[in-house]
């Protein structure tokens, strides 16, 4: 049973979190200060730091939630390995494109924020595990080969998405992933 105090803490957390995300999306991450977040949230500045050590921690939380939802989307069982992976990549890419300011902030601060780096590692591991599961259902079912191939596919997907976004070609990311994945899978099967 949740106590009144726990409910209040959860409400404060959600208020700060949702307010920050709205401000980041509207104005851009770098243009929003902690002072603006606390003012819009109607909380004391110290309360912000009880929940988030810094602004990038909000982005880390958003990224983890957003990617978890994308990864958990159902994928048809009766399709090829390549199509399963492309379906997963499409879900991830669509999730990223829904909130471009937040995605850009995540990429911009990933090198500086331990919390974003830790979340990226967990997300990559989750994607890799899902792809490894897909691979093991095919003729490429050797455990070691499946693990290595899954790792390569995650690198291919994330690298292509990041590069396409940096170049302003995020609309082409799926086409690039499909092309690169086709080559990689033909090498793996070959």
Kindly summarize this structure in a few lines.
By secondary structure, the protein is mainly α. 78% of the residues lie in helices and 0% in strands. The chain has two domains: 4-52, Homeodomain-like (Arc Repressor Mutant, subunit A, Orthogonal Bundle), CATH 1.10.10; 56-189, Tetracycline Repressor, domain 2.
Architecture blueprint of SSEs:
Blueprint: H1 4-27, H2 34-41, H3 45-51, H4 55-72, H5 81-98, H6 100-109, H7 114-136, H8 143-166, H9 173-189
Helix pairs in contact: 1-2, 4-5, 4-6, 4-7, 5-7, 5-9, 7-8, 8-9
Which class do the helix and strand fractions yield? mainly alpha
Tell me, rounded to a whole number, the average pLDDT.
89
Number of helices: 9
Spell the H/E element sequence.
Answer: HHHHHHHHH
Annotated CATH architecture of the largest domain: Orthogonal Bundle
Domain module count: 2
Terminal CA distance reads 56 Å
Largest sheet: none
CATH topology of the largest domain: Tetracycline Repressor, domain 2
For the secondary structure, the number of strands is 0
Rg (CA only): 19 Å
The percent of residues in helical segments reads over 70%
Question: Rough shape?
Answer: elongated
Uncertain residue ranges: none
CATH level 1 name of the largest domain: Mainly Alpha
Give the DSSP E fraction (strand runs of 2 or more residues).
under 5%
Describe this structure in words.
This protein is mainly α. Helix content is 78%, strand content 0%. It folds into two domains: 49 residues, Orthogonal Bundle (Arc Repressor Mutant, subunit A), CATH 1.10.10.60; 134 residues, Tetracycline Repressor, domain 2, CATH 1.10.357. Helix 4 crosses helix 6 and helix 5 packs antiparallel against helix 9. It is elongated, with a radius of gyration of 19 Å.
């Amino acid at each position: 049973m949740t106590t009144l105090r726990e409910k209040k803490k959860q409400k404060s957390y959600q208020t700060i979190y949702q307010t920050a995300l709205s401000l980041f999306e509207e104005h851009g991450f770098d243009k929003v200060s902690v002072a603006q977040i606390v003012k819009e949230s109607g909380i004391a500045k110290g309360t912000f730091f009880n929940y988030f050590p810094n602004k990038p921690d909000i982005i880390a939380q958003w990224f983890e939630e957003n990617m978890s939802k994308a990864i958990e989307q159902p994928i048809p069982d009766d399709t090829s390995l390549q199509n399963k992976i492309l379906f997963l990549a499409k879900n991830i890419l669509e999730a990223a494109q829904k909130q471009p300011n937040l995605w850009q902030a995540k990429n911009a601060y990933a090198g500086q924020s331990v919390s974003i780096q830790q979340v990226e590692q967990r997300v990559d591991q989750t994607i890799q595990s899902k792809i490894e599961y897909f691979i093991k259902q095919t003729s490429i079912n050797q455990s070691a080969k499946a693990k290595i191939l899954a790792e390569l596919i995650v690198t291919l997907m994330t690298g292509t998405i990041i590069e396409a976004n940096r170049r302003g070609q995020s609309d082409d990311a799926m086409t690039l992933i499909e092309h690169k994945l086709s080559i990689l899978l033909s090498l793996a099967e070959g």
